[in-house]
């Protein structure tokens, strides 16, 4: 008989622990921030004309998920055949208005034709965004 009398008490303890555990998990999940992301990376130049392997200045405008300008976003060209003469990755960072200019990049192998330049933007806490921009090699 002692086992039957103790059953309701054990059941009550299990129910209380499960209820408290659920409350803790729900509270924890309520504190999770919604993910932030880069909404767009706009390039002023619709087509980039590359002459003698030199890529002209490319003007960038970056916005967030609310379409607000994003400052502090690192931007670079990520094509493998594109580099910067100083040998570094030569990233640029957007200003307070979400703007940046890629300058001085060169195309290492440039037969006459077309290319798709891949421009990537990233910022800590945000998803990375890549935009493809058509280029014409003349």
Features:
alpha+beta, 38% strand, 138 residues, five-stranded mixed β-sheet, 2 domains, 1 helix, 11 strands, Immunoglobulin-like
Description:
21% of the residues lie in helices and 38% in strands. It is an alpha+beta fold. The protein has 2 domains: 1-32; 36-137, Immunoglobulins (Immunoglobulin-like, Sandwich). It has a 5-stranded mixed sheet with strand order 2-11-9-4-6, with no helix packed on it. A 4-stranded mixed sheet has the order 7-3-1-10, with no helix packed on it. The chain starts with a helix and ends with a strand.
Would you identify the CATH H-level superfamily of the largest domain? Immunoglobulins
Domains, number: 2
- By CATH, the topology of the largest domain is Immunoglobulin-like
Spans with pLDDT under 50 lasting ≥5 residues? none
Mean pLDDT: 85
CATH class of the largest domain: Mainly Beta
- What is the CA–CA distance across the termini? 95 Å
User: Total helix count?
Assistant: 1
Q: Major sheet: order of its strands?
A: 2-11-9-4-6
- Share of helix among residues? 10-25%
Main structural class: alpha+beta
Compressed to H and E, one letter per element, the order equals HEEEEEEEEEEE
Hey, roughly how much beta strand do the residues contain?
35-45%
Supply Rg: 27 Å
The CATH architecture name of the largest domain reads Sandwich
User: Largest sheet, if any?
Assistant: 5 strands, mixed
Number of strands: 11
Shape: elongated
Q: Oligomeric state of the chains?
A: single chain
């Amino acid at each position: 008989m002692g086992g039957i009398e103790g059953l309701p008490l054990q059941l009550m303890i299990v129910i209380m622990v499960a209820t408290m555990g659920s409350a803790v998990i729900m509270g924890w999940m309520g504190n999770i921030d919604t993910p932030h992301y880069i909404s767009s990376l706009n390039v002023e130049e619709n087509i980039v004309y590359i002459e003698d392997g030199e890529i002209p200045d490319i003007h960038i405008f970056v916005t967030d998920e609310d379409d607000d300008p994003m400052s502090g976003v690192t931007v670079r060209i990520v094509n493998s055949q594109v580099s910067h003469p100083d040998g570094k990755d030569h990233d640029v960072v957007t200003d307070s208005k979400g703007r940046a200019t890629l300058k001085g990049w060169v195309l290492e192998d440039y037969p006459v034709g077309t290319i798709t330049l891949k421009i990537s933007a990233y910022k800590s806490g945000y998803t990375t965004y890549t935009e493809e921009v058509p280029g014409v090699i003349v």
